[in-house]
């Protein structure tokens, strides 16, 4: 039995959230969603995710704190930016229709490396 990766979407933008949820649902995924910085921190501290889709416009976002937390994880998740650029994540790219909807949902779920 194949399991789907745990996905976290962090955005307060309802349009972005809805579009990502629809695209992921078509692929059989039911991601967790959060709309605030506090909820996001709680989820990455307590949860295990394979993929995080984060909106750089999320209020109070602190990329260096995120990287510090993720470095403590045995298997850190892949992170992709949606919406606004997150400057410290050099590998993350800015908007071009949400970076072609996060490279058509995170490079088919990070090359099916579930």
Description:
The protein has helices at residues 14-26, 37-46, 63-71, 97-112; strands at residues 7-10, 32-34, 51-55, 78-82. By secondary structure, it is of the alpha/beta class. Strands 2-1-3-4 form a 4-stranded parallel β-sheet, with helices on both faces. Helix 3 links the parallel strand 3 (51-55) and strand 4. The longest helix is centred in the C-terminal third of the chain and has 16 residues, at 97-112. The two termini are 12 Å apart. 27% of the residues are buried. Residues 88-95 have low confidence and may be disordered.
Q: Provide the succession of SSEs.
A: EHEHEHEH
The counted number of beta strands is 4
Number of helices: 4
State the separation between the terminal residues, measured CA to CA: 12 Å
What is the makeup of the main sheet?
Answer: 4 strands, parallel
Fraction of residues in H or I helices: 40-55%
The low-confidence parts are: 88-95
Tell me, briefly, the overall form.
globular
Work out the radius of gyration: 13 Å
Short description:
The protein has 4 helices and 4 strands; from the N terminus they run βαβαβαβα.
